[in-house]
């Protein structure tokens, strides 16, 4: 059986009743996390530009923008919400696949569910299936990132998730996946340049994946051999792959259980340094003034993603992926938050001076897709040399965030939105997500994801 046929069979056969309790719990955990991150993403100034453009692409009122509540065609709402989820680099990641599955997937599935009045159970099922598809494909790749895998694998996941929610099978499902594949887009050039287009690639693919289902339902046909064909995903977009790795995951464990949290709003590749520095500082109690030098030992992917040089004219997109700046902020504040990428913070001379003390070098890991292990070395002015090795970074399933840490992140994210949510509004949203499987219409959930004043949407 070919990989695509195995994938289609998987999409067709999974039912909500088949999901173990731990899988449902994991889906709710990352829906919880991604909703908060998407609400927080409303604070980014470029969101207004995206919404201004999207407002000219149709006036159907099918789904809403998170936090601010504008009604848009469902695909356009998914585009904006996907951008909001990923625009602060705070969204979850499947480390083995190097795919941020929830940004593309949840933005699209929630908009589709709102448009079609689907239930919480249907949303959970769609997320589980979509994450399986996106990450089983991504996990089979043995070469480094060239195209933007999160948006592209995420789009295939979206189409699969919608079909699972609506029980779309057979030829229509196959066509939908082929049409979705034919629209994939996104490269790593935006990452290299620190461009906001990186997050927009998430939104664009979320929207196109939804439209693929509409085209298939209308009877349009798509290519079929989209994974292993001569111009299939593995051949066209990746330099090398091992199909056995695909089969080792598909159907063996639901991959939503293998997703990592991002405790900090930076690229996941920067988290090991933050984790190591804060742990060393807690263990040894050194001050910033005592730091002579910091060295981060990391795999090739981390070097590629956050090993960029420090600049005095950085914008927030660039700084979130600059290891030196991330490290300096963590040491100064004991944390890294969304407010640490303001223009004032980015130009702080003390921060830049501390950031200049950070260097990076390759460790012994040769895996081009690995985000661990990470080593952190700190040399102090009193001659002490401190070192920590992190085989798994905070937020990974092997070192998961506690429920208390997850809730703390949720509150911080909702309070950082363009219109900060009230304590009562946050509590109601938390309770609704906790009981997601009991919700009969996702519109009831989305209304709690929108800032209200005097019961009216701003």
Automatic annotation (TrEMBL):
Pfam families in alphabetical order: MmgE_PrpD_C, MmgE_PrpD_N
Domain (MmgE/PrpD C-terminal) ranges: 264-418
The name this protein goes by in its record: MmgE/PrpD family protein
Species for this entry: Shewanella glacialipiscicola
InterPro entries xrefs: MmgE/PrpD_sf, MmgE/PrpD_sf_1, MmgE/PrpD_sf_2, MmgE_PrpD, MmgE_PrpD_C, MmgE_PrpD_N
Domain (MmgE/PrpD N-terminal) ranges: 7-242
Similarity comment: family membership: Belongs to the PrpD family.
